[in-house]
Design goal:
- This protein is of the alpha/beta class.
- The protein is built from 9 helices and 18 strands.
């Protein structure tokens, strides 16, 4: 079957480590695993890091990349693939597809049956394929961790990236006032077009917010602390601009703030996210869709850093 995979590692030029060609059919490691015919997948920065050799060793090569997918299961059902797989050999006890188990950038992928979540008919395969990683992370940040139902306003730092843009759309769909920062004026325009109030990084907000979505890190963390209302939650799932921020502990205890870490989500949360998208006509922000025959262009698009929303691969063309 045709697949896109890491053939080597290249820290300076990760695109040079990407190969596209024939790979063996999926192997089912246990009786509870099934094969899914992939109809669409989407890229994450995790895929570029894998090409750089982060999280993978030479003994794991060649590794088919890709965490996110939607397709058809062995019983003919339309499904979305939950990408977290129990992995006893990993110190975490789990791994994401394309780490220990072959990923989704292929005609077919093997996953545990428990990882299959029904795809609502109202969502296209390309839309559904955007949800299992970045959008699921944003949903969990807002709901399970951020308890956004207790808040009226949300601040999203660094909108434009996958998780942050998803958080803007989801918070708006949940009826919240949303403020979002970006260094890029064009992205601020796009954010405003979604319905949020777009601001430059560090700008003073008209109000303090109940939930802050933080994926940037050191560059924005002080602003996040200052923008949180009494009892507010600062939910962290990334640190793209520094992982060791200075934290004013006086503000943390005086304002009774909660700093919460998270990543990904559960199959039940993915089901709830899909239901929300169906019931409230929420659709992911898609930067571009590429046929599988042009999967290399999809990787180049993500690597460019100019994306707004998800880069999607349509496996039917």
């Amino acid at each position: 079957m045709r697949a896109a995979y890491a053939s080597k590692f290249d820290d300076d030029n990760p695109l040079a480590a990407l190969a596209v060609g024939d790979r063996p059919e999926p192997v089912l490691p246990d009786d509870d695993w099934v094969t899914v015919e992939v109809r669409a997948s989407s890229l994450n920065h995790h895929d570029l890091w894998s090409l750089r050799g982060v999280g993978l060793g030479a003994a794991q090569l060649p590794m088919i990349l890709g965490c996110d997918a939607a397709g058809i299961d062995d019983r003919g059902n339309e499904v979305v693939v939950y990408p977290v797989v129990p992995t006893p050999a990993d110190p975490r006890g789990m791994s994401i597809l394309s780490e220990h188990y072959q990923g989704t950038f292929a005609e077919r992928v093997a996953v545990p049956r428990a990882n299959l979540v029904p795809k609502p008919a109202e969502l296209s395969f390309t839309d559904a394929a955007c949800l299992p990683t970045a959008w699921l992370t944003a949903y969990r940040m807002l709901t399970t961790k951020g308890r956004v139902d207790e808040a009226e306003a949300v601040l999203v730092q660094g909108a434009g990236g996958g998780v942050a843009t998803a958080a803007v759309v989801l918070a708006l769909a949940l009826g919240k006032r949303v403020y979002a920062t970006s260094r890029d004026a064009a992205k601020r325009d796009r954010i405003a077009g979604l319905g949020a109030t777009a601001l430059e990084p560090g700008a003073r907000l008209p109000e303090r917010v109940g939930v802050v979505i933080e994926t940037v890190g050191a560059a924005t963390f002080d602003h996040s602390l200052k923008s949180a209302a009494t009892g507010g939650r600062i939910v962290v799932s990334g640190a793209t601009a520094g992982h060791e921020p200075k934290v004013n502990l006086r503000r943390v205890f005086a304002m009774q703030l909660e700093i919460l870490g998270t990543s990904m989500g559960t199959p039940a949360e993915l089901h709830d996210l899909l239901t929300l998208c169906r019931d409230r006509s929420v659709r992911p922000v898609v930067d571009s869709v590429h046929g599988f025959s042009a999967v290399g262009e999809a990787f180049a698009r993500l690597h460019s850093g100019n994306v707004f929303g998800k880069v999607v691969v349509d496996h039917t063309r």
